[in-house]
Design a protein that fits this description.
Elements (H helix, E strand, L loop, with lengths): L2 H9 L7 H24 L2 H29 L12 H15 L2 H20 L10 H22 L7 H25 L24 H32 L1
């Protein structure tokens, strides 16, 4: 194998801990801090709302554009490529949330986004590395969702309640049932309900099918409770200060 071919393969692989993995996370973290601090310090309420809504459209249109491009110019497979995986679906529909800003939607999304994108960020499942459209789509969708939900936490001061944990869990069960029906009719594997992803993922530690699904279900509420813990501690801290 020639040196140039080896370099090309290396540049187009997204391995855990590589620059293609770490740099987007660092960039998104820096962007989120600057975006949130600027909004809190410089924008009026209506400007804060418009800023995050425009950003949500950027995330959503990136996903729409990617799938439109694939349908037009690539071998698009409706059994595997539709944006029905949880993070892709949330990225597609996130402008609905940023427009209406309903608390019930926040209660669900804060747990879905933080819990759902965590595995995707830690163990990226990207077909083609930098500078492919899929690479940018993947990171814009997953990291963009995190930026949006933290914007609502730190700019609009929205926080989930204890019962929000169970609302998010029940909503997730509805999503799972819908994906089971879709997988049955399309003979597909959306939400990885019939087979684990081919790339390394946290599901690899949960056993084979169907055990990884059962284990995944068992850890969802503890995971959501862990996500809720900082909000609970923050509320207790404010209560103690007010006494």
């Amino acid at each position: 194998m020639s040196y140039s071919l080896q370099l090309t393969i290396l540049q187009n692989s997204v391995t855990i801990g590589s620059l293609q993995h770490i740099l987007p996370i660092i960039f998104a973290f820096g962007f989120a801090v600057v975006f949130i601090k600027y909004a809190n310090g410089n924008l009026l309420e209506i400007q804060k709302q418009k800023a995050i809504h425009y950003f949500a459209w950027f995330v959503s249109l990136t996903v729409i554009g990617f799938h439109g491009y694939r349908m037009a110019f690539d071998n698009y497979n409706f059994k595997t490529d539709l944006p029905f995986y949880l993070c892709s679906l949330m990225a597609l529909l996130i402008p609905v949330f940023t427009h209406f800003r309903k608390y019930l939607m926040f209660e669900i999304l804060v747990f879905w986004i933080v819990g759902g994108t965590l595995q995707a960020v830690i163990t990226p499942d990207i077909t083609d590395g930098f500078p492919s459209f899929d690479y940018f789509r993947y990171w814009i969708a997953h990291l963009g969702l995190l930026v949006i939900i933290f914007y609502f936490v730190f700019v609009f001061k929205m926080k989930p309640k204890f019962k929000s944990v169970f609302k998010a869990f029940l909503a997730l069960q509805v999503y799972v049932l819908l994906m089971m029906a879709l997988n049955y009719f399309l003979d597909a594997n959306y939400f990885y309900l019939n087979q684990k992803p081919k790339s390394a993922s946290l599901l690899d530690y949960f056993g084979d099918w169907p055990y990884y699904i059962l284990v995944g279900q068992l850890i969802i509420i503890p995971l959501f409770l862990l996500i809720y813990l900082p909000f609970h501690l923050s509320n207790r801290g404010k209560e103690s200060l007010s006494k």
